[in-house]
Design goal:
By secondary structure, the protein is α+β, with helices and mostly antiparallel strands. The chain has six helices and 13 strands.
Length: 266
């Protein structure tokens, strides 16, 4: 008498479980998108601009693009250099002069439709001469960039760690605390401080529109931002700030990209 009842109960439970399982498979739980919809909708960044990522600082962005962090702040009207936002797009190359852009737009928009709009031969000659001069300047800048730069040794110690783009973005030179650190070429100091993690007391010198040099882990800085320096001028004293030993970490950046300093040193 108990067997049929047990069988009925078992069949009822199995039916409920089966139906429950079917319902689960046919209606999967929705996936919640916590990205805010930004990741897939971000447009590509134009050449000369950069989209800020989490963890970026204006100083790091400037170093990676071969620029002064103050220049980048000025080009983008950034009043507080500590206030930058993730996904914000900023200019990282100098803006073209408004005058040059305006003159080109005016030339394109000119449509001589009456006698007063006809370009005079003298004006045409001036425009052609101006265009030739602009071309010469562009070519001379390209030649200057391709010619490279000749550097002097920033310190007299031994090279204890060589360039490896994946691990070491420059070379490390040994020495004693207080040894002189010298500018490797003429230039302008675009940074002097200790805000860049991993570099300690750091000096960055901009030599032209192509090259920067960086001098890290110093004990004492002897220059400040905006100073003009000469090749072999003492700019700091060797130390071990943010380092495990006394040394100079020396980097050469070409358009912001780390390159082997040994290729530029005698």
């Amino acid at each position: 008498m108990n067997f049929p009842r047990l069988l009925i109960v078992t069949l009822a439970i199995s039916t409920v479980v089966f139906q429950s399982g079917c319902a689960t498979r046919s209606a999967p739980a929705p996936v919640v998108d916590r990205s805010g919809g930004k990741g897939a909708s971000l447009e590509p960044v134009q050449a000369g601009f950069y989209r800020i990522k989490r963890g970026d600082t204006l100083l790091r962005i400037a170093l990676d693009h071969g620029q002064s962090h103050r220049d980048i702040a000025e080009w983008n009207n950034i009043a507080d250099m500590n206030q930058i936002e993730v996904d914000q797009v900023i200019r990282v190359v100098p803006p073209r002069s408004a005058k040059a852009m305006t003159s080109k737009v005016e030339v394109k928009q000119e449509k001589p439709s009456a006698a007063k709009d006809v370009v005079k031969p003298s004006d045409k000659m001036k425009d052609e001469k101006l265009a030739k001069n602009e071309t010469k300047v562009e070519k001379s800048n390209d030649v200057a960039s391709d010619a490279g730069i000749k550097l002097s040794w920033p310190s007299k110690g031994n090279v204890v760690d060589r360039f490896d783009e994946g691990k070491n973005k420059g070379i490390d030179i040994s020495g004693k605390s207080g040894d002189p650190i010298q500018a490797a070429a003429d230039g302008k100091v675009v940074y002097a401080g200790n805000s860049l993690r991993g570099y300690g007391n750091l000096v960055i010198v901009k030599h032209d529109n192509t090259y920067l040099t960086a001098y890290a882990h110093n004990k004492t800085l002897l220059v400040k931002e905006g100073d003009s320096v000469k090749k072999a001028q003492k700019i700091a004293e060797m130390g071990n700030t943010d380092a495990d030993q006394v040394k100079l970490h020396f980097e050469v950046r070409k358009h912001g990209k780390p390159v082997d300093p040994m290729s530029y040193l005698p």
